[in-house]
C-alpha cells in the first residue's frame, strides 16, 4: 500500500512525500505541468531549452556553483522534458536533503537565463539534435508522433527545430514562463527516510515566498486523426519501422486494460507475442517492442522494429498478423492469468525504484489529483476479462486505423 502525505501551501504548490525507512538516499524534485505541447509555433523546443538553461545561472549562483553544489557531496542533479511535463530533480544522501531542496527551488524559480550561456547552450542543443538524427531507432519514434498527430502540438519534436532553437533570446524564456507557470500546477515530490514534518518545515522555509500564480490551461485538444503511410529514404544500413495509432487518454477507464494488452503484445518480457513471433521464430529482428504513451486528452500506441530492407514487408505482415490475433482470438483462462501476473510483477518491481516512485507520485497528483496504490491498480488488472481485451483490441487496433512510418536504406 502506498502511504503518502500531501500538503498544499497557501501559494498553491503541493508537497507530496513518502517516507521509506530503509533508504539513506533522498530523491526529490519539482514537476511542472508544462511541456512541449504548450509551445506556440515560434517557440518549438523552448521548454526543453529552459530545462538546459535552469543549470546555467540564478540570481545568486553561476553555472559552476549549481553543478558543483550536489555533485561535490556525491549527489546527482538532473532534469527532463516531455510533451506535458518539465521536471528538475535530485538524489542525495539524506543528510544533504535541505541542500538539494534549496538548490532545486533556486533553479526552478530563480533562473536568470544569461545571454552568454544561452549562446553556449544553443550549440549544445544543436549537437544533441545531430546525435539524435544519427540514431534512426530514436528519431523514427519521435517523427512518428508527427505522422499521427500531424500539425497538432503533440506532434512536434521536444527538441524543436534548428531554426527555432537558433532564434531564442532571454525574453523568450521569461515570456514562456510567465505565460505557463502556475503554482497550482506544479508539485514538489520526495521519497526519503525523513519524516513528513521535516519536509513540510523546509517547504515552508524555501517556498513560502514564491508568489501565488494561477493560469487557466489553454491546451488545444487533439481532434481529427487520419491514418497515413510514410516512407523516407535515409543513408542507413537497416530498415526501421513504427506502426501505431491514437489510443486511450490518461484518465480513460480502459487505460489499464489496454496497457495490459500492449504489454502482452510487445512489453519488456522476452515472452511478448511480437518477440516470440518475429525474433525467436523467424530471426528477423534484434529489437521489437510496443509502447503506450498517455496524455491528458489522448494516447499513442507505437510498435517499433528494425530489420533488413528486404525483410521489411515480411516483418510488417507478421506484426499485423499478431494484431489480428488480438482482435479475433480471445485469450484462454491460463493465458489471461499469465498476462495479469506478468504485468503485476513488472509494476511491483518498478515501484522498488524510489526515484521512479517519486516521479510517479508527482505526475499522478498533477494529472489525477491522487495516487493510485499498487493494490488499486492490481484490482483493475484482476477485474479485466478476456472479453474486455478483445473489445479493446477491436476498438483500437483495426488495420485500417493504423499509421506506418518506414525508414529505408537509400
TrEMBL record:
<dbReference type="InterPro" id="IPR007863">
    <property type="entry name" value="Peptidase_M16_C"/>
</dbReference>
<dbReference type="InterPro" id="IPR011765">
    <property type="entry name" value="Pept_M16_N"/>
</dbReference>
<comment type="similarity">
    <text>Belongs to the peptidase M16 family.</text>
</comment>
<feature type="domain" description="Peptidase M16 N-terminal">
    <location>
        <begin position="21"/>
        <end position="162"/>
    </location>
</feature>
<dbReference type="InterPro" id="IPR011249">
    <property type="entry name" value="Metalloenz_LuxS/M16"/>
</dbReference>
<dbReference type="Pfam" id="PF05193">
    <property type="entry name" value="Peptidase_M16_C"/>
</dbReference>
<dbReference type="InterPro" id="IPR050361">
    <property type="entry name" value="MPP/UQCRC_Complex"/>
</dbReference>
<feature type="domain" description="Peptidase M16 C-terminal">
    <location>
        <begin position="169"/>
        <end position="343"/>
    </location>
</feature>
<dbReference type="Pfam" id="PF00675">
    <property type="entry name" value="Peptidase_M16"/>
</dbReference>
<protein>
    <submittedName>
        <fullName>Insulinase family protein</fullName>
    </submittedName>
</protein>
Amino acid at each position: 500500500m502506498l502511504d503518502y502525505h500531501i500538503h498544499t501551501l497557501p501559494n498553491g504548490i503541493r508537497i507530496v512525500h513518502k517516507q521509506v525507512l530503509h533508504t539513506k538516499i533522498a530523491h526529490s524534485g519539482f514537476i511542472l505541468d508544462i511541456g512541449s505541447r504548450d509551445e506556440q509555433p515560434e517557440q518549438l523546443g523552448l521548454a526543453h531549452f529552459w530545462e538546459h538553461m535552469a543549470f546555467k545561472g540564478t540570481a545568486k549562483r553561476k553555472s559552476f556553483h549549481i553543478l558543483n553544489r550536489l555533485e561535490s557531496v556525491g549527489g546527482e542533479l538532473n532534469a527532463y522534458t516531455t510533451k506535458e511535463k518539465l521536471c528538475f530533480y535530485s538524489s542525495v544522501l539524506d543528510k544533504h536533503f535541505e541542500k538539494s531542496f534549496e538548490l532545486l527551488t533556486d533553479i526552478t524559480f530563480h533562473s536568470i537565463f544569461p545571454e552568454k550561456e544561452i549562446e553556449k547552450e544553443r550549440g549544445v542543443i544543436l549537437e544533441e539534435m545531430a546525435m539524435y538524427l544519427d540514431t534512426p531507432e530514436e528519431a523514427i519514434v519521435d517523427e512518428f508522433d508527427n505522422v499521427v498527430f500531424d500539425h497538432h502540438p503533440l506532434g512536434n519534436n521536444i527538441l524543436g527545430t534548428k531554426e527555432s532553437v537558433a532564434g531564442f533570446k532571454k525574453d523568450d524564456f521569461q515570456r514562456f514562463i510567465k505565460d505557463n507557470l502556475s503554482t497550482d500546477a506544479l508539485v514538489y515530490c520526495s521519497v526519503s527516510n525523513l519524516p513528513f514534518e521535516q519536509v513540510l518545515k523546509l517547504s515552508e522555509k524555501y517556498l513560502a515566498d514564491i508568489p501565488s500564480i494561477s493560469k487557466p490551461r489553454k491546451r488545444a485538444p487533439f481532434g481529427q486523426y487520419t491514418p497515413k503511410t510514410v516512407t523516407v529514404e535515409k543513408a542507413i544500413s537497416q530498415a526501421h519501422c513504427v506502426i501505431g495509432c491514437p489510443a486511450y487518454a490518461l484518465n480513460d477507464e480502459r487505460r489499464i486494460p489496454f496497457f495490459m494488452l500492449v504489454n502482452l503484445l510487445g512489453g519488456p518480457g522476452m515472452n511478448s507475442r511480437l518477440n516470440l513471433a518475429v525474433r525467436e521464430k523467424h530471426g528477423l529482428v534484434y529489437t521489437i517492442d510496443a509502447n503506450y504513451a498517455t496524455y491528458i486528452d489522448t494516447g499513442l500506441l507505437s510498435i517499433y522494429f528494425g530489420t533488413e530492407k528486404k525483410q521489411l514487408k515480411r516483418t510488417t505482415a507478421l506484426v499485423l498478423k499478431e494484431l489480428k490475433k488480438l482482435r479475433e482470438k480471445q485469450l484462454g483462462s491460463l493465458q489471461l492469468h499469465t498476462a495479469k501476473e506478468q504485468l503485476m510483477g513488472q509494476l511491483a518491481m518498478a515501484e522498488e525504484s524510489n526515484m521512479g516512485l517519486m516521479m510517479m507520485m508527482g505526475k499522478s497528483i498533477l494529472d489525477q489529483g491522487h495516487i493510485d496504490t499498487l493494490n488499486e491498480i492490481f484490482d483493475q488488472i484482476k477485474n479485466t476479462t478476456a472479453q474486455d481485451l478483445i473489445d479493446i483490441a477491436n476498438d483500437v487496433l483495426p488495420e485500417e486505423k493504423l499509421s506506418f512510418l518506414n525508414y529505408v536504406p537509400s
